[in-house]
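Running this now, will post back.
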Amino acid sequence: EDEVKERLATQPRHTPTLLSEKILNYGIKGLYWAFNKATGYVAADPTPNSIITRLLFLESIAGVPGMVAAQHRHFASLRNMSRDYGWIHTLLEEAENERMHLLTFIHAFEVTSLQRAVVFGMQFGWAGFFIPLYVLSPRTAHRSVGYIEEMAVYTYSNIIQLMDTPGTKLHEAWSTKEAPEIAKVYWRMDDKATFMDVIKQIAVDETNHRDVNHTFAEMQWHDVNPYVNKHIQDAGKAYDYWKSKNDAVEGKNLDYLMNEKPEPKPQS
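Update: finished.
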């Protein structure tokens, strides 16, 4: 809880200085405005359904940049027979984390066919833009992700405030909602964790992605990733946590929720 308050106490915004940064910043803000209009989002008191569409859309495109960047740097490392200086791990962690955000929301809500269609279409559109952007200018690409993450932090902070405010639609719908089991496992939450706890954790994740991408946007290709030590510390904490669990089980033949996988159908 203290970490959540600390990370969300301020919401720093990068001020565009280069022409490319200004174009990206205004372009992203324009798309943000258009998407709000298309989904009927009203910031003062949005409906749960408009927020669900927003979260599915946001997390489906947020999972693209980390994978694209990691793949590009991976191929460059192989092609040039050179080190990557620790970037790939951070980028893959970002992609995996954003994907888990999406899976959490899929488990928490009923996803409509229209929402799936929007996610499907936007993933192709966003990937089609981001892949050549990263090839041409990795620093500009990371800056664009930083701007998107700034909006993500703002969105989740607004959701937290509304869920905590009696009389709002989100408070009425989600204030007593339980955390999905997949979220409890992934973030190592208490069994009594609520959906508010999940939203707060996701908001903290997004502040990390914001800071990482703005940092990478200031770095040269061969600079050493400054977040390597943090990954090592996080891995140690995760190991200690699972080692302390008395109910740890072998995960073979179990799905992510530790349920038995169905037997594969015999091939004819």
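The chain has ten helices and no strands. More later if anyone needs it.
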